[in-house]
């Protein structure tokens, strides 16, 4: 199936009756046209910039919402072609400058956890100096440049994170919630260039994860099937899913931001997902992604990983505005296209 997000109606139409019903159980969507009139003085510029006047004068908007989670995305491909004036030049050589990098010397230049450090083959843990939760530490990669990745490194980072989580769990009576995240480069919120994954072990379930948990529990009660399995089925039916070593990859229909990928795993520990995560990151880098967020957490028996592109390091404007914070996400990438590339 080779649809575009603007042909979502056709994609849904060709589904079997059951699959279509399942789709509509999850999603409501609308394809509409936003119209405008280009003044003569702008015509040449618009043609050069966007290819044709028609494309701009009648723009297709796809609005799709997950009825259970409230995740809502507004797609308009034209937005990725619009001029961005706030560019600041960034030299990728900067990523190789190790000059005063504290993380290049973690044992002397980063704090340790009270129980010490967990050492991996390609990384070491450090305690976060300004914590956002009581157990909040880092896996600091041996490799400085965060865009240099290898499969066995990713596996080691995650395994080291898991070992840290075990250490922290030993000190706590209450069951802790594992949340690993990788903010890569500035656009993603990372303040330090040197590659690192952040680890938290929280007593309180994070609000957004609790909402998802509640959605899954309510879904089970109402339909007597599994929310995550059905979410996968809907994506698979539309050609928006693939598999890698038993892990299921969704090219998410309601991305939080560009090119969001949702991985469903039955792994008991996150390092078992390393091959899939490595391959996805490799695909991201091949597509030119420079800055991303990766989050890994548990949901019932699943490990879920979510990965999102945060845009070009050259752009000064943030990719997230009031729409994303308070309403719905504005997206220019097409999950159908993503499914073909990855
Ligand atoms: Zn460094």
Explain what this protein looks like in three dimensions:
This is Galactose-1-phosphate uridylyltransferase. By secondary structure, the chain is an alpha+beta fold. The chain has helices at 8-13, 17-26, 43-50, 53-57, 106-109, 151-170, 207-223, 227-237, 274-286, 322-326, 335-341; strands at 27-35, 58-66, 72-75, 123-127, 136-141, 177-184, 196-202, 241-244, 247-251, 261-265, 292-299, 302-309, 329-331. The protein has one domain: HIT family, subunit A. The strands form two sheets. Strands 4-5-7-6-11-12-10-9-8 form a nine-stranded antiparallel beta sheet, sandwiched between helices. Strands 1-2-3-13 form a four-stranded mixed beta sheet. Zinc ion is lined by residues 98, 101, 103-104, 144, 194.
User: Could you report the average pLDDT, rounded to the nearest whole number?
Assistant: 94
How many domains would you count in the coordinates? 1
CATH topology: HIT family, subunit A
- SSE order in H/E notation? HHEHHEEHEEHEEHHEEEHEEHEH
CATH superfamily: HIT-like
The bound ligands are: zinc ion
Radius of gyration: 21 Å
Distance between the termini: 15 Å
Strand content: 15-25%
Using the alpha-carbon principal axes, give the shape.
globular
What is the level 1 CATH name?
Alpha Beta
CATH architectural name: 2-Layer Sandwich
Stretches with pLDDT under 50, minimum 5 residues: none
Main β-sheet: number of strands, strand sense, barrel status? 9 strands, antiparallel
SSE-based structural type: alpha+beta
Enumerate the strands of the largest sheet in spatial order, edge to edge or round the barrel.
4-5-7-6-11-12-10-9-8
